[in-house]
Amino acid sequence: MFETAIQTFTSPVVLFFVLGLFAAFARSDLAIPEPIAKAMSLYLMAAIGLKGGVAVSKSGVDVTVVSALGAGIAAGFILPFFAYGVLKTFGKLDRINSGAVAAHYGSISVVTFVTAVEILTGQSREPGGYMVAVMAAMEAPAILSGLLLARGMGSKAGTQSTGEMLHEVFTNSSIMLLLGAFVIGMVGGEVGFAPVSPFFEAGFKGVLCIFLLDMGLIAMRRIMESRSITWRLGAIAIFLPIVNGAVGTTLGVVIGLDAGSAAALGVLCASASYIAVPAAMRLALPDADPGIYLTMSLSITFPFNVLINIGLISALAASLTGANGAMQ
Amino acid sequence: MFETAIQTFTSPVVLFFVLGLFAAFARSDLAIPEPIAKAMSLYLMAAIGLKGGVAVSKSGVDVTVVSALGAGIAAGFILPFFAYGVLKTFGKLDRINSGAVAAHYGSISVVTFVTAVEILTGQSREPGGYMVAVMAAMEAPAILSGLLLARGMGSKAGTQSTGEMLHEVFTNSSIMLLLGAFVIGMVGGEVGFAPVSPFFEAGFKGVLCIFLLDMGLIAMRRIMESRSITWRLGAIAIFLPIVNGAVGTTLGVVIGLDAGSAAALGVLCASASYIAVPAAMRLALPDADPGIYLTMSLSITFPFNVLINIGLISALAASLTGANGAMQ
Amino acid sequence: MFETAIQTFTSPVVLFFVLGLFAAFARSDLAIPEPIAKAMSLYLMAAIGLKGGVAVSKSGVDVTVVSALGAGIAAGFILPFFAYGVLKTFGKLDRINSGAVAAHYGSISVVTFVTAVEILTGQSREPGGYMVAVMAAMEAPAILSGLLLARGMGSKAGTQSTGEMLHEVFTNSSIMLLLGAFVIGMVGGEVGFAPVSPFFEAGFKGVLCIFLLDMGLIAMRRIMESRSITWRLGAIAIFLPIVNGAVGTTLGVVIGLDAGSAAALGVLCASASYIAVPAAMRLALPDADPGIYLTMSLSITFPFNVLINIGLISALAASLTGANGAMQ
Amino acid sequence: MIETVTRKRIEILADKALQRRVTDAIDRIGITGWTIVPVTSGKGREGVWREESVMGTDKVLVLTIAAEDKAMALAEELAPMLTHLGFVLSMWDVQVIRGERF
Amino acid sequence: MIETVTRKRIEILADKALQRRVTDAIDRIGITGWTIVPVTSGKGREGVWREESVMGTDKVLVLTIAAEDKAMALAEELAPMLTHLGFVLSMWDVQVIRGERF
Amino acid sequence: MIETVTRKRIEILADKALQRRVTDAIDRIGITGWTIVPVTSGKGREGVWREESVMGTDKVLVLTIAAEDKAMALAEELAPMLTHLGFVLSMWDVQVIRGERF
Ligand SMILES: Nc1ncnc2c1ncn2[C@@H]1O[C@H](COP(=O)(O)O)[C@@H](O)[C@H]1O
Ligand SMILES: Nc1ncnc2c1ncn2[C@@H]1O[C@H](COP(=O)(O)O)[C@@H](O)[C@H]1O
Ligand SMILES: Nc1ncnc2c1ncn2[C@@H]1O[C@H](COP(=O)(O)O)[C@@H](O)[C@H]1O
Ligand code: NA
Ligand code: NA
Ligand code: NA
Predict the structure, then answer these.
(1) Prediction pTM value
(2) What residue spans define the domains of chain E?
(3) Ligand 3, pocket residues at CB < 6 Å
(4) Cβ of B123: how many Cβ atoms within 10 Å?
(5) DSSP H/E element including D43
(6) At the topology level of CATH, where does D9-92 sit?
(7) What is the ipTM of this complex?
């Protein structure tokens, strides 16, 4: 545990995130230009998609992969119902906002996943390459559950048809790019990937540093200006990742994943989307308050996951699989 | 032929282009931020210029280089006259638009050239480094021919003087950067290039992937919204690259270029500009309709060249030079 | 001297700067998109900070480092007083503008420093890694001296309190990022740096090329449109870097630095800020004219330093330390 | 002297994600065109927002010029969204040249 | 027909570095909100400027809608800065829907 | 109370490549300044356009404030371009402070 924490806090990726939090807290005017932030998020999607596709083209699709995919998709559909209950009762949110927030927590955060892969790899527990496919498969289901919950049975006039909604979910820019790059990686394989690997692989961690710097800035600024976050919602934004992370990790171990991959599944369940799902919600649930769902997922859950929860999940996965602690 | 097609369609560069076409067709909101797209085009110009300059600094300037330059420049001046005739008669365009479109087809597309170099290199037919110089030399002549054709003999009052026009052509940002980087590459040579090669060389193909993703998005969106393209113009946008490509390749073989370089000359003749020439036309022929020239060159000719015509030209060059098919 | 000049003018970094100057002079429309220019400046700050931090984590802090830091900070505080005198008397500027300009010349230009390191390394006189720490330490002191000079004793109502001012200086985005990355480099050390080095180290010189291209464009456009620069101010913008450079180099030799590090200290003293200090001045001295301070530092002093003065300073350092000429 | 006619200029601040709802309304009413002006941040009753394209919090200003009757029809059409989605609409009289175009 | 009320629309061109001085003044006077529109270059008595974010020469357009009395109070408050710091202010009457909001 | 004077505010939507034709006209007529506001997309009789800086399809909004006579002279000067090059011009009265500046 302690070594893990040390490792987490000497990783430049995490340190740049902390620098971002600090700079915003100190009211520095440091800011990454908007188009650069957007481009970095597209780059990270394309790179992770490619990498996952190449990995699957090498490993092929076996029973482990299929069961991991099944577990991920099931979790994506089911976890929002639990989250919705907690948000509506303990969190005192209305139906629409509860559904919107639940969708975020059921879906996944690509950057949290990527950071976890960094950290797990540093602990010699690199997750299987197919976990990227699991991640991609987990983006959308929670959006559907969340919308179902938010809209209830009798969906109002003026809202979108289910067809429109599905169209928007699957043409969402980050999902499109992640899946597209995944397919390109699978088609091109390692040979096709080689010439583009200096760009997509060698540069990856550096871009991640700067992206996390920006996320740190935005997360801290957002919480400092937030008006909509009660202590109840703050508590839920810590509670859900702990519970979902434990559930996901256990599920991973039960279906027979190795410690690294089970931890990755745990991190996927624990993470809350702040790129793909907010974009979908702006369209599908424009009445939901971004001041709630973005602040919870980006400003509270994301830092909690990066700084603390990934370490906890990794330790849990290790103890459940009987692997000894970090850095064996 | 068949192997070539397979190779083309497993190259990540081409696959990202196809992803762009597909995403736009599916009405995804995927988009590369404007400043990033512009920066990538500048990067590609600088990188290709540098590379060409370094290549010429190594190889020196011999008879082959001079005759390739001569052939390219001559083609740049002459091809627009042929294109103009076709556009005016079969295409039913007026004088101004015919001249503007003719300038695009006489000039070259840097990205088509670069993609062709990728594909040809994959077929063990890497074109000579001096072909970059030929490309640079072919950017401007067609602009002059096109303007001459568009303006006819009695140029109207209020239009620019020839001096202004030449100034605008040669200070055009892409021409300036391409030529400037070429000179820097020649002056610095391989020794000067070494320290910047990780940036300009290792990253090149990855940037090209993302740039082509964007071009795919823009090309498809443009044609889906186009109002000015008749079937006649569509046919011309396929016909011209076939004819010009065959002419250019044959010309290359006649003046004694190797198969790869002859194919590269063919691709240069076949390609239609969509960066430098449109910029020049906005200034010099503001009455011409970008809805015609951009849609033809970017949305029809460019995909046709990348997906099909480069393969055809390569096969033609191989058969004309007596080299056997792909991948000997 | 002559070889040094040759070397300077075959470095791609310098050649891209010259290309920028030339393109702007030829009234080309070449321009780097704003968000890209800003991102490159942030990248350069982060990269140089990281590198410096890693260097200090390796070398540790010894007497040389401490005395170099002391000398740099002292120079930063004192040089503005000399500059202020020259600007007020010979330059005929008012108090506010004299103070503002003096702050720029007392502080440092990161890009000039980085270019000097490139050139010095090419002459086998690489400065010590701790000089980055000296550079970081020299950013702020001159701002304080300059404000003191500009505001005189009786600071007017409506201006900021000293507390606000210090806050703004230390939360200034470039100072924050440079220092933050420095700390991250020190904490992470070489092991932490390794995974991000392809991004921050391999890409560095290429980014520097494009950034200098942009600075060349901006510097030349600015001077061509300038209305506020008299011949007196132009002369001062050449005179100050010569004097400050000589003073700094001598100081470096006196406190026992090697030739490269002494030259680096000279370059720091000679260089004038055009990123951090202008940003601070817009806030702290909004009445000062950016048309004066930016044109002097960016359009005159910066090209003079890059193209000529770095060579002079390097030669001075060599002769003072008894090292023979370039490229021993 | 050149002849000018009076038209209404309408500017609507809307979420970028919902921009199409506004422009579709403009098209539906038969106004000839619209232009999008970027905006980068703002403050209202619901606090501060900033353009954060990664998270999709961006807004835009949709500007359109139309004859008075169409302008009023547009305002009528958009009114529910104004209250509902936090859009801001303002309009005023402007002089234009070539009034037949608008 | 939908009801509109008349408000003042005020636009202030200011240095980005000093944007907060303007928005703080808006907040102080009790106007409900403001929106920032980017600008990229311009020319005035002091010559040409261009957005150069590296050097911090950027400007912005601050736009705010308010009742007449608050608008005049804002103009009064900003007047010294206009002369002093080269800001440009213009204002005019606009019709808005849901006037209670402004 | 602070004194304001009435001036014309003119906004011209033009191709970025041809921006200089507009600003040169402004300078020629002796108006003291102008400011460029970016725009990102639009729709008119000739269909949709989008800012695509690689291909140079960008447009800009040129805004300038001037006394009525100069404003009319500018409109007169630009009228041919409006028809010819598809520019859009609108103008209206605004109140400004420090009217001697415009
Ligand atoms: N009085 C105002 N003047 C200008 N812009 C406003 C005003 N009120 C609101 N806005 C803009 O509209 C957005 C949404 O407003 P609100 O729904 O009140 O939070 C704000 O963030 C501002 O960008
Ligand atoms: N008459 C005008 N119309 C529009 N913008 C102006 C005008 N005068 C000045 N500006 C803007 O205000 C800035 C500062 O003006 P100045 O202080 O006169 O240099 C200029 O660079 C322009 O962007
Ligand atoms: N009625 C309008 N309101 C606002 N902008 C317009 C209007 N009509 C045209 N425009 C703008 O002017 C551009 C050129 O118009 P057009 O020449 O009609 O295609 C359009 O793409 C829009 O950006
Ligand atoms: Na989750
Ligand atoms: Na061609
Ligand atoms: Na200095």
Answers:
(1) 0.95
(2) 9-92
(3) D 31-35, 63-65, 102; F 13, 42-46, 49, 86, 88
(4) 23
(5) strand D41-44
(6) Alpha-Beta Plaits (3.30.70)
(7) 0.95
